[in-house]
Design a protein that fits this description.
By secondary structure, the chain is of the alpha/beta class. It has one domain: 3-Layer(aba) Sandwich (Rossmann fold), CATH 3.40.50. About 45% of the residues lie in helices and about 20% in strands. The chain is built from 9 helices and 7 strands. It has a 7-stranded mixed β-sheet, with helices on both faces. Strand 2, helix 5 and strand 3 form a beta-alpha-beta unit. Helix 3 crosses helix 4 and helix 7 packs antiparallel against helix 8. The protein is globular. The chain starts with 9 loop residues before the first helix and ends with a strand. The structure holds S-adenosylmethionine (SAM). The site of S-adenosylmethionine has 21 residues, from helix 1 and helix 4.
Length: about 240
């Protein structure tokens, strides 16, 4: 178990974590990932196969950093929806969307990834970034993502993953397990939240297993792309 006994379940714990770090989430992402998070998100966008005027649902959108990049991809006549269950993250998302002058293009909704409030076959693509390991039921979430896209549409996940190369892996785990919680405490006053981060990545299945899950759920041509030595991975599958 990677969450504290004070909480009823993982969902409640994850919600409390993101409420407590929302004010510093964007800054810490940039600092802790050495600014790689932007490149990883842009790579994920490039794998959606979205076109001008397309429609996309970004679940667990947080502060809308991926949602904004998706909006740029589909243009002003596309449909872009960001969904998250944490109001504090959505408050930051609204600020970020407004500062990009995209408030007329992006719809932000409160909702749960395991029970999406959309009909079958609605969007061209669904995306999720840095969140599959946070949801209470990974398989149910991917099934929901698949359900709401049209036949031929894409499900794309960007997630932190497990690097393979021996020396790189050791240096990375030292940084991740020992330094990230300290930096998180300094930056957001939340050592606990940034202890959860390495624990959640270690507990999450290897990238090859997530690809297998995509296939099991019925997503075709399921493949994954490891980025920055496998620190992050983008999965894609087609309905
Ligand atoms: C690490 S953040 C990722 C935010 C964003 N996708 C990004 O690229 O930075 C994870 C987000 O998932 C949201 N989340 C976690 N579980 C959720 C669930 N079951 N339903 C909806 N949102 C959820 C959290 O509130 C948080 O905003």
């Amino acid at each position: 178990m990677i969450y504290n006994n004070k909480y009823k379940n993982k969902e409640e714990y994850v919600h409390s974590i993101f409420s407590s770090i929302a004010h510093r989430y964007d800054l810490l992402n940039t600092v802790l990932s050495f600014n790689r998070d932007k490149y990883w998100r842009n790579y994920a966008v490039s794998k959606t196969q979205l076109k001008e005027n397309g429609s996309v649902l970004d679940i667990c959108c947080g502060t809308a950093m991926l949602t904004i990049e998706l909006a740029k991809k589909v243009g002003p006549n596309g449909r872009i929806v960001g969904l998250d269950f944490c109001e504090d993250m959505l408050v930051k998302a609204r600020e970020n969307v407004k500062s990009e002058r995209l408030e007329n293009n992006i719809e932000l909704l409160r909702g749960n990834a395991v029970d999406l409030p959309f009909k079958d076959d609605t969007f061209d693509s669904t995306t999720i970034a840095f969140a599959l390991r946070n949801v209470p039921d990974v398989e149910k979430t991917i099934r929901e993502m698949r359900r709401v896209i049209k036949p031929g549409g894409t499900v794309v996940s960007l997630e932190l993953s497990k690097p393979g190369a021996p020396f790189f892996k050791q240096a990375y785990y030292f940084y991740f397990n020992c330094l990230v919680p300290v930096l998180g405490k300094i930056g957001a006053g939340q050592g606990g939240a940034y202890r959860y981060l390495p624990g959640s990545v270690i507990a999450f299945p290897h990238q090859s297993k997530i690809r297998d899950l995509f296939e099991k759920i019925g997503l075709k041509n399921a493949v994954y792309f490891e980025l920055t030595g496998g620190i992050a991975t983008v999965h894609i599958g087609i309905k």
